[in-house]
Design goal:
Layout lengths: L4 E4 L27 H15 L10 E4 L9 H17 L5 H16 L6 H8 L4 E6 L4 E6 L4 E7 L11 H15 L9 H4 L8 H26 L2 H17 L6 H14 L4 E5 L6 E7 L3 H15 L6 E5 L9
Antiparallel strand pairs: 1-2, 3-4, 5-7, 5-8, 6-7
Helix pairs in contact: 1-2, 1-3, 2-3, 2-4, 3-4, 5-7, 7-8, 9-10
Protein name: Galactokinase
Family: Belongs to the GHMP kinase family. GalK subfamily.
GO molecular function, one term: ATP binding
Length: 328
């Protein structure tokens, strides 16, 4: 089955339960002091209540195979899966966008991580065999077809990272400072033509962060067109620029991630692209390549990555674009 987080009501053999939580809807929902994962569930329910959703109790069994702390949206998948399960149980009048926003609010306000909306939206609105182009200003989305002969390869560096404890929130504050400099709500509203002539007037570090975001917005639009056209050479150029920007301007990569990118790029050349994915400071890289290169990439990474990283072992995933959250 594809990587997913599943929330369902079921009888479950006790030996398979790692831990469990319970909380009452008749009292204020507070954060769990030890089990961080439980706070994503509690936060989703709390924010459904704040939407005046008529949510009742439920017995939920939650399982999943999305790696935690790897930059692959495990928290968003949990938030959306729990929201979808409660929506189905109680016929809540909430569409995919509302469930995504509810998950984001739970993570921002209850868990304490100032994440954006991308991860929740793709978890809620993903379409089979398509990427999703998201406008985070309007929340409009456009499905972009994935070429049938292209593999999506995820490689986990197994350098663990946690958004709450990393510098993710710091980057968010720096981007907000840049937006204030331009008098806009978000850097989505700053064009390259506006930014580049006056970037020298900004705090140098804030300017670097803004340069990444503004240039990445342009690369994203270009990548959607290249993907729809099946132009892997163009995709490769854009992904290389993206990774360099994350490394040099946003400063969120780490040496093992950069090493993985270099190894993969050395195999696929201009027949695909590779970059870090997720919030940074470890986690995973993502690569797009023809199917006939997958095994060469796998064997090369298995041979070279441990030698170049003092024995780190990667985890390799060959993925496909799947449908978003819904009933199994």
């Amino acid at each position: 089955m594809p990587n997913a987080t599943i929330a369902r009501s079921a009888c479950w053999p006790p030996t398979t339960i790692i831990n469990w939580i319970n909380f009452s809807l008749d009292a204020a929902i507070e954060a769990h002091p030890q089990l961080q994962w439980a706070n994503y569930v509690r936060g989703v329910v709390k924010h459904l209540q704040s939407r005046n959703a008529d949510v009742g109790g439920a017995d939920l069994v939650i399982s999943g195979n999305v790696p935690q702390g790897a930059g692959l949206s495990s928290s968003a998948s949990l938030e959306v899966a729990v929201g979808q399960a409660l929506q189905a149980l109680y016929q809540l009048p909430l569409d995919g966008v509302a469930l995504a926003l509810n998950g984001q609010e739970a993570e921002n306000q209850f868990v304490g991580c100032n994440c954006g909306i991308m991860d929740q939206l793709i978890s809620a609105l993903g379409q089979k065999d398509h990427a999703l182009l998201i406008d985070c200003r309007t929340l409009e989305t456009r499905a972009v077809p994935m070429p049938a002969d292209v593999a999506v390869v995820i490689i986990n560096s197994n350098v663990k990272r946690g958004l709450v404890d990393s510098e993710y929130n710091t980057r968010r504050k720096q981007c907000e400072a840049a937006a204030r400099f331009f008098g806009v709500k978000a850097l989505r509203d700053v064009s390259p033509a506006l930014f580049f002539p006056i970037q020298h007037e900004m705090d140098p570090l804030v300017a670097k962060r803004a340069r990444h975001v503004i240039s990445e917005n342009q690369r994203t639009l270009a990548a959607a067109e290249a993907l729809a056209a099946g132009d892997l050479k163009r995709i490769g150029v854009l992904m290389a620029e993206s990774h360099a920007s994350m490394r040099d301007d946003f400063e969120i990569t780490v040496p093992p991630i950069d090493t993985l990118v270099e190894i993969v790029k050395g195999v696929i050349g201009d027949r695909g692209g590779v970059r870090m994915t997720g919030g940074g400071f470890g986690g995973c890289i993502v690569a797009l390549m023809p199917l006939d290169l997958v095994e060469a990439v796998r064997s090369t990474v298995q041979r070279e990555y441990p030698k170049l990283t003092n024995g780190l072992q990667e985890t390799f995933y060959i993925c496909t674009a799947s449908q978003g959250a819904g009933r199994c």
